[in-house]
Amino acid sequence: MYAIVEIAGHQFKVEKDQRVFVNRLATEEGQEVSFDNVLLIADGDKITVGAPAINGAQVGAKVLKHLKGDKVIVFKKKRRKGYRVKNGHRQSLTEIVIESIVASGAKPATKAEKKAAPGKVEAQKAEAKNEASHDLNSLTVTELRDMAKAKEISGYSSMKKAELIAALS
Fold first, then answer.
1. Are 66 and 29 in contact (CB under 8 A)?
2. What integer pLDDT is reported at residue 79 of this predicted model?
3. Which of 67, 78, 126, 142 has CA 20 to 30 A from 30's CA?
4. Per the structure, how many domains does the chain have?
5. Final residue of a domain: which of 88, 106, 124?
6. Are 74 and 87 in contact (CB under 8 A)?
7. Secondary structure of the chain as H, E, C letters
8. Residue 145 falls within a domain, yes or no?
9. For residue 133, is it within any domain?
């Protein structure tokens, strides 16, 4: 049994217990991951093709380690101009092992089911605060003063825009 699944923007033909190198995934080593975007499943002579993906199909995998790929040299040259540039690049990769291929009956992972890591909660709060300050930056000074008046902030009439944003945040 094999499946063609889209992982991190690339399509892979995977089988059970196969090790695959994919673009860096945002999970820690040893964690289980599942991929819902299964494009094809072949079980012997029975082939199921999705349009574009198969509903209820899922590929389960475990992250083994994060690593870097081989170095790729990029060399540019323009003849008779003295122009030579040499750059190197190493792709960030994740090694995963395919643990299961489920043809039907798998529930797609929703955002509510995915738990945020403890360190990510503070980052999300900071991001929300940053978005709120971006919203306040787009407002005019008179709109900010009206908001400060509604929140009963004292001395709002003499404050500058940056002070009003800081007081409202």
1. yes
2. 97
3. 126
4. 2
5. 106
6. yes
7. CEEEEEECCEEEEEECCCEEEEECCCCCCCCEEEECCEEEEEECCEEEECCCCCCCCEEEEEEEEEEEEEEEEEEEEECCCCEEEEEEEEEEEEEEEEEEEECCCCCCCCCCCCCCCHHHHHHHHHHHHHHHHHHHHCCCHHHHHHHHHHCCCCCHHHCCHHHHHHHHC
8. yes
9. yes
111 lies in some domain: no
Domain that holds residue 1: 1-106
On whether residue 138 sits in a domain, the answer given is yes
In order along its 169 residues, the chain shows pLDDT tens digits of: 999 999 999 999 999 999 999 999 999 999 999 999 999 999 989 999 988 899 989 999 999 999 999 999 999 999 999 999 999 999 999 999 999 999 887 776 654 444 444 455 566 656 665 555 567 777 888 888 888 888 888 887 888 888 888 888 7
**Which two three-digit tokens encode residue 111?**
């955002």
